[in-house]
Amino acid sequence: MSSYVGVVVSDPELHSQFTQVELRTLKSKFNSNKTLLDRFTVGDLPPVLAKLNAFSGTFDADEIKSVLDKSYPDADQEVDFETFLRAFLSVQARGVEKSGGSKGSSSFLKTSTTTVHHAINEAEKASYVSHVNSYLRDDPFLKSYLPIDPATNAFFDLVKDGVLLCKLINLSVPGTIDERAINTKKILNPWERNENLTLGLNSAKAIGCTVVNIGTQDIAEGRPYLVLGLISQIIKIQMLADLNFKKTPSLFQLVDDTQDAEELMGLAPEKVLLKWMNFHLKKAGYEKQVTNFSSDVKDGEAYAYLLNALAPEHSTHVTLETKDPTERAKKVLEQAEKMDCKRYLSPKDIVDGSANLNLAFVAQIFQHRNGLTDDSSKSTSFAEMMIDDVETSREERCFRLWINSLGTATYVNNVFEDLRNGWVLLEVLDKVSPGSVNWKHANKPPIKMPFKKVENCNEVIKIGKELRFSLVNVAGNDIVQGNKKLLLAFLWQLMRYTMLQLLKNLRSHSQGKEITDADILNWANRKVKRVGRTSQADSFRDKNLSSGIFFLELLTAVEPRVVNWSLVTSGETEEDKKLNATYIISVARKLGCSIFLLPEDIIEVNPKMMLILAASIMYWSLQQQSDTESNVSEDATDEGDANSVTGEISNLSLDEASESSPSGQDQELVTKADEDDVDNGNNKDA
């Protein structure tokens, strides 16, 4: 396992300005420049800082020089790491002034993790603590620590060992984490805490949270602004879970025709909630349109109309007749209490327009009483028309979560709707292949003219071909038109390319040999065999993989202590397979793998997901060896066999791969499968 201790800065105040993710990134940049230059001086800082993503497009080297000249007049002064960090903060602070303050994210599921402002909202903290106290009070492990007093910092202390984080994720999306994988001893050592936090963060990504600038040590240190940012996302996902057509088919009553229904399906959950709220407000005679959960609800009037419409038995005109906003807010909450809605907010939060707390309040009203009638004929007709097959839905979910985990500026709620203008695909391509996108040729949303969307998507196809994707007879218009098979085929190749590039970049000293699917399979088989285990996989389509034993043995091979074999079943029955598959996913995430598959993908042996799972484990394993080699090179031996990153993969040859995969079918896993998707999915060739 990698060391639990992160980058340490001697000045505590300076240290507190950065997350561990940021410190590791900046430390890497500092070390590389220090190695490159004979002497790293203040005069070298402007061009170095100008190349950082944080300042790209905001400052050029000359502007950075003018900022630093005030604090560091001696250009020949040698720079140490702490000076580098202080210079970074100086430029960052100037950037905030230049932009007029940081801009909030457009999506409720995107949370700001900037290190410039650390203020926390005490009302939100109290609300989240109340949520935890209410929903987890009967949890066998946590009940001895609950209830938490919101007036203290006990909440942040309880989060530090990762158990609360994991439990909250399972509360939000049941079954995400196999709780057998959580370390729940009363006293955990640093390794066990780090495992829990790693499991929690990777699982948070797997349910749609944005955790780009949050590391395990940030949570272990109980940093309030980061902890609350993450917890708020998890709770919102739970509160908005019913705002989709699978769980609430009656939502189709909000639209009149198929086109409107398709648009509604592509909306973010909070937008659906607003549409639901306005649907009832219009029927109740409220003449204004509510467009947000802040300024539009501050006077409490919309709430009064909404509650009167949903709960006429508690209806009262006194609320509307009350002129004072605070008094009206009090009466709104009194009326909500009669509907058994817990108070997520106070009258002051309504009057202040607290967006997060008002969102949670409206979501809870929806959960308790949505006021939609069961018009089964209308709901069924729309639902049948919109339902995708199970495999398509699973793939859409996987790619959506993967895209959101990359930290792109645009949050994706529905792959089939949000990617049709090409912009998000360009953002993803720029993330996984930096410099591949010529942004001068891109059209930024909102895009009203259809041909502008086609231009974006044509650029996407062009870049895909440059990356050697299989895109026979595919044009940008196919994406604009929402061809699901073609889009899923493209995203699969994009995910695979990203994984193979990560592996390739770990072995930069091994003559640039490209990694293939067969290399990954051969590496996995060699790893399992080397530790004396008997399982072997013929291919990523091998039906024996459904038992889960091979992947559990592979996980044991890369980290002997991570699998508790007393919890493993034989994998012979469907129930046993499900138990093993669920455990595999949680153990892999606990180890450090960022994966988005479901247990069903293992049970049914989805070859694409089997490849990504094996590649993720391989990447983690080689990453540990790379870290070890850079620190203690003499430890990089393995019983006479090459165990360095270079050696691990240099020893993989196509001849060896052929022994593990005689038919060579996994070597063609992408090209054959995706050509089939293209041939079957392209309307022009149908």
TrEMBL record:
Keyword Repeat applies: yes
Polar residues composition-biased segments: 643-668
Calponin-homology (CH) domain location: 122-239, 267-370, 393-499, 514-622
Record-level GO BP terms: actin filament bundle assembly
One Pfam family here: CH
Spans annotated as Disordered: 629-686
UniProt keywords, alphabetically: Actin-binding, Cytoplasm, Cytoskeleton, Repeat
PANTHER family: FIMBRIN-5 (PTHR19961:SF79), FIMBRIN/PLASTIN (PTHR19961)
Subunit: Interacts with F-actin.
Official protein name in the record: Calponin-homology (CH) domain-containing protein
Organism this protein belongs to: Brassica campestris
